[in-house]
Amino acid sequence: MSELQTRVDHSAIRVNQAMIVSVLILAFIVNAPWLVALVGLVLLGGAALRQPGFGLIYTGFLEPRGLVKPEVLVDNPQPHVFAQGLGGAVLAIAAGAFALNSAVVGWALAWLVIALAALNLFVGFCAGCFVYYWLSRLHAPGFNAQPPAGTFPGLRPSHKAG
């Protein structure tokens, strides 16, 4: 493990993605744009705190009861924080679209976040992490982490932490 790589609990990330997908689909079904704004705030708050926005559901309920077991992998937290902030920003724009009576744009952006969160949840590909690693490759300021050895940028690493 290189000195820049740390351990990340991917179960917490998957719970976060499942909550994003579930709450946003519920928001669409019941036509509740305020839920889109709420999820956006949760994601932005989680990014600011450098942890999954819905992490308390994992650490406070699911993990202690053994309903979800930790999957700690050698990985960098920075791309996940960036991806979560990006999702929160897209949902903030969606909330703005709703406020401007542009429900089509608001729901389109919400469904974009749903699709990308589902891609991460079910396939293990994080589009925001992919963008982070490309920005790192282009030497963008503040984007310093590299994908774990042998891992395609954005894909969930396969290396279990020891």
Structure, explained:
The protein has one domain (6-137). The longest helix is centred in the middle third of the chain and has 23 residues, at 77-99. It is 62% helix and 5% strand. It is globular. It has helices at 10-29, 33-49, 55-62, 77-99, 103-123, 127-137; strands at 6-9, 72-75. By secondary structure, the protein is mainly alpha-helical. Strands 1-2 form a two-stranded antiparallel sheet.
Number of domains: 1
Q: Going across the biggest sheet, name each strand in turn.
A: 1-2
Largest sheet: 2 strands, antiparallel
Poorly predicted runs are: none
- By DSSP, the count of extended strands is 2
Q: Report strand %.
A: under 5%
What gap, in angstroms, lies between the N and C termini? 10 Å
- Morphology call: globular
Number of helices: 6
Radius of gyration: 16 Å
Percent of residues in helices: 55-70%
Assembly level: single chain
Following the backbone from N to C, one meets helices and strands in this order, namely: EHHHEHHH
Q: What is the averaged pLDDT score? A: 94
Based on secondary structure, the structural category is: mainly alpha
